[in-house]
């Protein structure tokens, strides 16, 4: 190998190290660990049970809705009309009236007569039945007796049935009548625990977002207290072999240490780990860090 080649290789080596040094010093961000708290949540999946009444069509024909999906109607108000067919009526129309006040909903799933408040039916049987969604709309052909929609009594609240992990259900922290906060799509809803049997829980949601009227199977998060530890950005956590950890600065070197994740919020996690303290510095953006890198 010629001297010129050696010089070029040395220059490239020096340039690479210099570039990496600039990356480390300019791009790598180091912060002190800070103590904090976040809410601990339990993710559940379950079924909504509502006071709802199907509105059957009085005849066979073409449907025309007179109210919008999610619109509240008064008792006796017209919600739809049917242009009768095949009965010699010559284009006669019949009107579907609301038997009581409530929120009109065109989302029908076939469980309206099964999932009712106070129904003793086992929820496992309901899960096996499953939902059969249908949404009749203007222009649809309906048969006599076929529902054109339903009314949901939003003033009486709704119930949420779900299962929780066995270790949570048996923790002794839950009791009937207990007020609870649940989250749906990040929105808090005040609820009350009505019943707990084994891993099954039934909650009453007295007030809830209007768009829940159209839902049946949902995922809600139960707020189950707070957890305390060191709060770091989610991006600071690096997994090795399935074990979460963070890079801390030890003797001016980047050192990966395992941690336990105690809780999380969008973009942040609460961690604990052996040897961590408020005097520990850690790397907030470990994308640019390698084990043993020198960091000030």
Automatic annotation (TrEMBL):
Residues 52-153 form the RND related barrel-sandwich hybrid domain. It holds the Pfam family BSH_RND_rel. InterPro entries: BSH_RND-rel. This is Membrane fusion protein. It comes from Desulfofundulus luciae.
């Amino acid at each position: 190998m010629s001297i010129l080649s050696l010089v070029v290789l040395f220059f490239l080596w020096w340039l690479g190290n210099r570039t990496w040094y600039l990356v480390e010093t300019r791009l790598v961000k180091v912060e002190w660990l800070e103590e904090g708290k976040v809410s601990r949540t339990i993710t559940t999946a379950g079924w909504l049970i509502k006071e709802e009444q199907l509105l059957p069509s009085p005849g066979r024909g073409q449907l025309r809705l007179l109210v919008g999906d999610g619109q509240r109607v008064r008792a006796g108000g017209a919600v739809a009309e049917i242009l009768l067919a095949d009965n010699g009526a010559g284009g006669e129309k019949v009107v579907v009236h609301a038997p009581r006040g409530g929120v009109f909903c065109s989302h029908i799933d076939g469980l309206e007569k099964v999932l009712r408040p106070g129904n003793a039916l086992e929820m496992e049987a309901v899960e096996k039945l499953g939902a059969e969604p249908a949404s009749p709309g203007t222009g649809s052909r309906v048969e006599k007796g076929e529902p054109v929609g339903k009314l949901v009594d939003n003033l009486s609240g709704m119930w949420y049935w779900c299962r929780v992990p066995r270790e949570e259900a048996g923790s002794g922290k839950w009791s009937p009548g207990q007020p609870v906060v649940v989250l749906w799509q990040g929105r808090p809803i005040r609820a009350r625990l009505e019943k707990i049997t084994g891993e099954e829980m039934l909650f009453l949601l007295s007030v809830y977002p209007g768009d829940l009227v159209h839902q049946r199977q949902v995922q809600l998060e139960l707020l189950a207290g707070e957890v305390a530890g060191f709060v770091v950005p989610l991006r600071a956590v690096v997994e090795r072999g399935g074990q979460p950890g963070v890079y801390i600065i030890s003797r001016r070197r980047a050192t990966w240490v395992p941690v336990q994740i105690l809780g999380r919020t969008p973009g942040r996690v609460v961690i604990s780990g052996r040897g961590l303290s408020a005097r520990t510095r850690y790397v907030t953006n470990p994308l640019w860090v390698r084990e043993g890198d020198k960091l000030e």
